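# step 3/5: fold
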Amino acid sequence: MWAERAGADGFYRLPFETAKFVETLRGIISARCVTRKSRRPRIVMLDDNLGPRFAVGFLTEGWFKDVTVMFFADGDEAMRELMDTDPDVFITDWRHPGPSGEEILRRLAERGVKYPIFVISDYLTNEMEKLATDCARLGMNVTLWSKPFDVEALHRELEKCVRTQRPI
C-alpha cells in the first residue's frame, strides 16, 4: 500500500507504514523524496526492523542532502521497486517478510544488476559468503556487513557509491 505526498521537488511515493512514520517525525527529520524522473542518486533500503531503517534514514539525511532514500519493510515491496527502477545502492537485511535476502540476490543476479548491494545481518554465515562470491563472479557488487557495523565505514562506502554511480 502506497501513500502519495506532494513535496517541494514534486510527488513522491512511500510505503504507507513509512509515510505514517515520516509524518510523525516531520518536525525532526525532513523527508527528502523526489520523483523517479529525478537525476538524484537513490538508495533503497529493505529491513523489517524500524530501528535500522530509522538509523540509516537519519544518517543519510545528514550525510547527503541530494540523495533520495526509499525504505521498505517487506521483500515483496522492495522487489517491485527494484524491478521497476535501478537504485544507485541497495541495502538489505538477510531476514525479513517476503523473499529472503538470498532469494532477492538470486533474482537480482538473474536480472544482471550492476549497482552495489550491501547485505547487513546480525550474523554472517558461510552460505552468505558463498552467495556473495557467486554474485561477484557474475559481475555483481555485493558487500556483507555484520551488525553492529562501523557507521563511518558505511558513510565512506555510500559516499563512493552515490558519487561514482551518478556524479552530481
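# step 4/5: annotate
Strands lie at 2-7, 10-15, 42-46, 68-72, 89-93, 116-121, 141-146.
# step 5/5: archive (pending)
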